[in-house]
Amino acid sequence: MSESTGGIEMEEDMSGTVKKFAFINRKAPYGTIYALESLEVVLISAAFDQDVSLVFADDGVYQLKKGQATKAVGMKNFSPTYRALEGYDIEKLYVEKESMEARGLTTDDLIVDVEVLDAAAMAALLEEQDVVLSF
Amino acid sequence: MLHIVNKSPLDRTALDSALRMAKPGSTILLIEDGVYGVTKGNKIEGAIKEAMKTVSISALWPDLEARGMQDTVIDGIKQVDYNGFVDLVAESKSVMSWL
Questions:
Q1: Which domain holds residue A103?
Q2: How many domains does chain B have?
Q3: Chain B interface residues facing chain A, Cβ-Cβ under 8 Å?
Q4: Complex ipTM, two decimals?
Q5: How far is A46 from chain B (nearest CA, A)?
Q6: Looking at the domain assignment, is residue A86 inside a domain?
Q7: Is the pLDDT reported for residue A12 higher than 60?
Q8: What is the pTM of this model?
Q9: Which helix (H) or strand (E) holds B69?
């Protein structure tokens, strides 16, 4: 195998491998950089045609709150990006029920359609992933 | 005394501790992720309402608005802007940040 074709062959091998990736979002937006960084990595992952799920638990549920307006704090409002994920074939968004309820929120308060899972269902979802990335 | 809390009450215990250790008559100002503490339906809502009987609780509205929580603030919570924040600091004999 010549060096020049080696890379191409590897690419072909990789293209058949689809793994289940879950991105776990557990932090509120703006107070720390985690939420925005997670979104950046999620968008990158979309380029690799993987089986991507996004999980929102604990304060991560706040990332999806409707009505974010960041002009007065001088930060970028990245919440509209969650609505664009569908265009990148990222359609599996899960919210943990217990976390949502502890914050007085319902799915009506969220900027995107999500599937609400209780803790037990979330545990099962996490169990079936190949890769879990926490933010 | 002015107590400043900038962490979400559901992530960290800073607000719990501030509520417990703030003397009656003092002021607690919530900023950054701390503002989630004064939103309706939140797990800590009861504790906030109880504390409001003895201490003054304020929240920085630019942080509420950034997080989309501007319409869910518990009744009776004072909302201040950055100038109001400065006034609170200037009026207070001392300031404690619950980092």
A1: 19-134
A2: 1
A3: 6-8, 10-11, 32-33, 36, 39-43, 45, 61-63, 65-72, 81
A4: 0.84
A5: 26
A6: yes
A7: no
A8: 0.87
A9: none
